[in-house]
Specification:
eight-stranded parallel β-sheet, TIM Barrel, 10 helices, globular, alpha/beta
């Protein structure tokens, strides 16, 4: 495995939850999870994102122990068997600490290290990357009338503030990734405005991660169910790559890999 991620790269999603909005329950079984990880890696994923608690709108919180049981054993097994970078999708400091002990490479936190002890946990481990995401409200209530005066400016300012907090705490710039949080406390209009002006975030010179795979923005635009949103998601992915996005978080790795490869060929000279 390389010493670091090569951008742009694909983050494959491994939800070990019964209630995630798209694939809830599919990968709770240990063997099914490992087979899916192997498939994602062979399909082009550089990074596997493991989640043990759904953050979909209206999702119920789970206990720390449940989240640990869903994520840490499979993380350890993936680390032992596959040459891939691993991220854990969590906001709990205890889960972060256990994941770090198990060899995780990145903390992907929808609350941007604002939970108790989260910032200190990551800052104490100098090799761990962190993805700081913007979220308005809490997952259970975030889609109940989200409001902004100017969504791009406010998301950008929040992320800049969290970056400064992390730098002050000793987390070096090369460890920081940012995520505007599509669908997290945002209406369709907010999401579209963020997508149009993604270059405002890529110009901050931190890798930008986006997660739009199968999300409600596509359902609203296309009037299609989660399993029918692939092509719309690929269109958004292409647009994001043209604006300099570094990491694409997706359920559909093979198809996204083709988009990344073709888009990169257009952006950079490729010998025949």
């Amino acid at each position: 495995m390389q010493n670091d991620l090569t951008y742009p790269c694909i983050m494959g999603i491994l939800n070990r939850t019964p209630d995630s909005f798209s694939d809830g329950g599919r990968f709770l079984a240990f063997d099914a999870a490992l087979r899916h990880v192997e498939y994602m890696i062979t399909s082009g994923a550089q990074l596997i994102d493991i989640g043990g608690e759904s953050t979909r709108p209206g999702a119920e919180q789970v206990s720390t122990q449940v989240e640990l049981d869903r994520t840490i054993p499979v993380l350890e097994r993936i680390k032992a068997e596959f040459p891939v970078f691993i991220s854990i999708d969590t906001s709990k400091a205890v889960v972060m600490q256990a994941a770090i002990a198990a060899g995780v490479d990145m903390i992907n936190d929808v609350k941007a290290l604002q939970s108790e002890n989260a910032l200190a946990t990551v800052s104490n481990h100098p090799k761990i990357k962190v993805c700081l995401m913007h979220l308005q409200g809490e997952p259970r209530s975030m889609q109940q009338n989200p409001h902004y005066h100017h969504v791009v400016k406010e998301v950008k300012q929040f992320l800049q503030n969290r970056i400064e907090t992390c730098l002050t705490a000793g987390i070096t710039a090369d460890r920081i990734v940012i995520d505007p949080g599509f669908g997290f406390g945002k209406t369709l209009a907010h999401n579209l405005q963020l997508m149009r002006e993604l270059s405002q975030l890529t110009q901050l010179n931190y890798p930008v991660l986006i997660g739009v795979s199968r999300k409600s923005i596509l359902g609203a635009l296309l009037n299609k169910t989660t399993d029918q949103r692939l092509y719309g998601g690929l269109a958004l992915t292409t647009y994001a790559l043209l604006q300099g996005v570094a990491i694409i978080r997706t359920h559909d790795v093979a198809e996204t890999h083709d988009v990344v490869k073709v888009t990169q060929a257009l952006l950079h000279h490729v010998d025949s």
